[in-house]
Amino acid sequence: MGAYVLAIDQGTTSSRAIVFDAQLNVLGIGQQEFPQHFPRSGWVEHDPEDIWRTVLETCRFALSRAAIAPRDLAAIGITNQRETTLVRERASGRPVHRAIVWQDRRTADACDRLKAAGHEPLIGRKTGLLLDPYFSAVATILDATPGARARAERGELAFGTVDSFLIRRLTGGRTHVTDATNASFDAIRYSQSGMGR
Predict the structure, then answer these.
(1) Which of 32, 133, 154, 183 is surrounded by the most beta carbons within 10 Å?
(2) What mean pLDDT is reported for the chain?
(3) CA dihedral 187, 105, 15, 8 (to 10 degrees)
(4) From CA 136, how far away is CA 105, in angstroms rounded?
(5) Spatial distance between the Cα atoms of 167 and 63, rounded to a whole number of angstroms
(6) Are the C-beta atoms of 162 and 10 separated by less than 8 Å?
(7) pLDDT of residue 116
(8) pLDDT per residue over 29-60, tens digit each?
(9) Cβ proximity of 151 and 157 under 8 Å
């Protein structure tokens, strides 16, 4: 096992990678912006392939600057956009739609209807979260992608935040997980979408 840690910071406007040694010295840094997509006013999307490409390129750059190889790493850590959501095919890992970014407000009217119907306290008790549009992205993706809801019901699709997408790619498709700090955000999207894991 190596003596270095690779930290991946996959943010809203850029991806960054930093290599640390055992004394927490920074040995290499890579950063790269990626395109933002605004299909309509209040809508914010990312192409998951842009996210993946910039993560790979920044990791390679940081490792090169640190003059180490991937086999020299003891661990990789990922921090990410949190509420930004992706839906992908289970078998191939290919995204079925652009990621819906946490800033997206397209479901504000649906949230207002839930509030007006008195559902906000129940949602707060079950999730510990406020009723907000950034928690309803899975339903948005399933409704916007022809056939996606039926595919999800058959178990052909999986969803998660950016960290789960990156981990699946970094492990060659073997692992679909998230961190506990992201899990509460996944839980409300799961309950609103009707989509199984």
Answers:
(1) 133
(2) 89
(3) -20
(4) 10
(5) 18
(6) yes
(7) 95
(8) 999 999 999 999 999 999 999 999 999 999 99
(9) yes
